[in-house]
Amino acid sequence: MSLEPVHIKEIHEMVDRIDTCFRKDDVETDDPERIVNILKHLRKLEYNGRIVLSSIGPVKRRKVSIERMMQSENPFTKTYSCDSGSTTTKTFDNGLYVDICHCAMASSPTDIELHSKRTIVASTYTASNRVYISNSRDWEIFDNGMGRKKIIRIHPGSLKKKVTDVLHDVAMYLCESEHILWMLHRIDKDAFFIMDGPIYPKRLIYWMVVGSEDVEIRNDPNSMKVVQNYIDIMDHHIEDTKALVGFVKNPEDMQIMLALKKQDMGLDIPWLLDAQFFKNALSLDRSGMKRKETYKYITYTNWFIQPNQFYEKMLRSTSPLVCEMVRGRFDSEDYALCFFMVYVPKLNTIFKIESPYGIVKSEVLRNRITRKVLYDLAMNGIPMTLSKADTIAKIPVSERRHIVDRFSNSRIDTTFNDTRWEERDER
Known about the structure:
- This protein is α+β, with helices and mostly antiparallel strands.
- The protein has one domain (32-420).
- The protein is built from 15 helices and 17 strands.
- The strands form two sheets. The chain has a 15-stranded mixed beta sheet that branches.
- Strand 5 (90-91) and strand 6 form a beta hairpin.
- The protein starts with a helix and ends in a 7-residue tail after the last helix.
């Protein structure tokens, strides 16, 4: 039984009542001083004596014409990107958890041999020590050397909660980082490298730092290997001053907004996510420009540095070096997360572009990276090479189902929601 007209009418009335509590975002009704006031705080934002965020140079908001960027020269003649596809973590009636991740790298111009190289990681977990899983001691080579595969296992008893999330993160980040390290020698020195998502496995680092009894992966060799791999990737690019960014399509960080509220209790901030604030700060509607006119531009901020990274809702100081659990060849400051925000009015979408300080502390390279990101966004909306990698690496729903069906001795653990909603092509 679907909604009747009387139900729709009442829902519309509820929507109208909620909607009228907010003002339209236009130049006459918005308060631009609130945005400016918050931006001033971002020059140097501190909490409990620690720097949460500081601006690299003056805090600025800029706009660039899409047409002019399209007519400009590509700042990098060669671009590489890495992405992965996943089955997502599958749960079975016998207590088995499995997530299989498949990683590929793409380039522009296209390199067919590079595209053909693949890495596959199957991450497994069971709570029982009596269950034997045939792990891989080393990489198993297939397809005449074009592919590598490995089965890993999280130690029984390590995960009492967040099993599906942690197992997925270990599979995905191990697969991606290992594939990048495998392919590093194929990346030209003056090329531009795009990682899909953040430059560090933030959620995994978070669980390694908090010391939870429910998620005990602090000493898990697979998790430690993941973090060390990302530090090694940064070391390679910092040492050779090679351009690297993490392209975050759906930024969910909230550290800046949380720190602002803690620092100044009188500051009225309606936003929870940092991205919500930056989207408002970079909107051209507030300058009096007509909506369709704003579609001709891309807006962006200056670069910022976060010397002390904070995770999720906890204002807890950590570092990509994870309390010296991993090795880095450079000063700890060089691994600090740096970023700038880019807003595309035509898509009404904001992106976070990350890079380690050891790379962007060079003003010349920092400006070149900024121009490259703006160029790619102007040309394709999403960087073309990143879209290529996504297409190559994705595991479609039909293939995921075939993979699950191969488990003849383990029956998939089906919930009511699984029968109510079909699986979608998200990863």
